[in-house]
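Practice problem: predict the structure.
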Amino acid sequence: MTTQPTWIIETRELVKIYGENHAGVRALDRVNLRVSPGELLAVMGPSGSGKSTLLNIIGALDLPTSGQVLVNGEDLAQIKNLDEFRSKTVGFVFQLHNLLPTMTARENVEIPMIGHLSAAERKRRSEELLTLVGLGDRADHLPGQLSGGQRQRVAIARALANNPPIILADEPTGALDSVSGAELMQLLRELNQRQGVTVVVVTHDLGVARQTNRVVFMQDGRIIREDYIGTPLEEDLKLWAHSGLGQRILNGDKELLQTLGISEKESTALQKLLQSIKHEQTG
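Answer:
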């Protein structure tokens, strides 16, 4: 009897260097990450922190300099046919939808299924997926006839074409307005909750990250902390604890406390609260 791995995604001491040896850019610096099956995870960090590099290596679009990536317990370095691995295991959604402009929504969704299903099966499956993402009545529309949010929904349908257990989304809401972005994240949440698809989202948007279950923060190629998403109040307190204002309160800035009208007793209680929040996040 085969034992199911605990983690659907696991990286071990992952390093990625672009360029020659030690003179190159260290995009990832010994990254250890574990993702549970059915998890909805966000990866945040400033530009150049390694977020997209990490996603590309997990999805076998790039190779690590050293370290391991395991998907469903299988070491990617031992997989001979990475194209087949990607087609069956991972669905990709990027900031730019990458739809072929001369193909209809249905035809774009069918592309990953070519070579796997018959024409009739591809048509049935693509229409089923477009209905799932709320575009059943747009199957014959070209990308140019769809809004930005609708094009991203087509991209999600395409990512689901071969029923992969993992979706990797790199800034999927980056080119959308706030309403379309919120609708797209709601769709990813529903897919995660109803179908058990594991979703990893790279984002700069804290509002997007708050709609996931866990947030991993990266800086200079390293994971510096992670948070489990709580109530809106808890999330606001976490944000405050790491802000400049929160740090000044923690440091007992008397001038600031006086300006805010916070008494010494209130200051002590607030400092304890912020300290406990930071301890939970780093501990």
